[in-house]
Amino acid sequence: AVLSGWSPAAVLVSPLLRARRTAELAGLGDAVVDDRLIEWDYGAVEGRTGAEINAERAAQGQAPWSIWRDGGPGGESPAQVSARVDSLLADLAAVRERGDVALVAHGHLLRVVAARWLGEPVSFGAHLVLDAARVCVLGAEHEQPALLLWNAGEVPAGL
Questions:
Q1: Quick one: pLDDT band at residue 159, thresholds 50, 70, 90?
Q2: Residue 127, Cα to own-chain centre: how many angstroms?
Q3: What is the pTM of this model?
Q4: What is the separation, in whole angstroms, between the first and last Cα of the chain?
């Protein structure tokens, strides 16, 4: 119901089933799978909690781990995720001329999308809390990239 009445020019979705199902439940059934929307590859830390990872690192005399700084050991680095998102955003420029674009993906990846939209490094995503099944709107204010809505459970009228 949150997105009812909205007709984006394009809908892109991560290839992972949970994102495709979310798009379907949100009424965005004509989604095109784009591999660049897959979640960050966490490598060796996939499925582990931050507490587990940091306990292991502390035992080895290492600083606490941060996906935003360290990336996924054996997976993707922040630079690799940034390049992937930058490619996506560049390709979407022409589509955005036709209208809104919906992206349905995953928490860390969407935080990177927002950071890169704003021209910030991947690490800026650490400051953008994003819960599951929330709506975010990226746009512009005075021709400058802006977050028009972030982590919302509903969309205000007129947005």
A1: low
A2: 13
A3: 0.93
A4: 15
Residue located via tokens 């509903």: 154
- According to DSSP, the residues that pair with 102 across neighbouring strands are 11
Q: If DSSP codes are grouped into helix, strand and coil, which group holds residue 146? A: strand
Would you state the structure tokens that stand for residue 67, as one six-digit string?
A: 């996906």
- Closest to 108 (Cα-Cα) out of 28, 19, 24, 21: 19
CB proximity list for 4: less than 8 A, separation 6 or greater: 27
- Tell me if 148 sits within 8 A of 138, measured CB to CB: yes
Residues 120-137 have pLDDT tens digits of: 999 999 999 999 989 999
Contacts of 139 (CB under 8 A, 6+ apart): 145, 146, 148
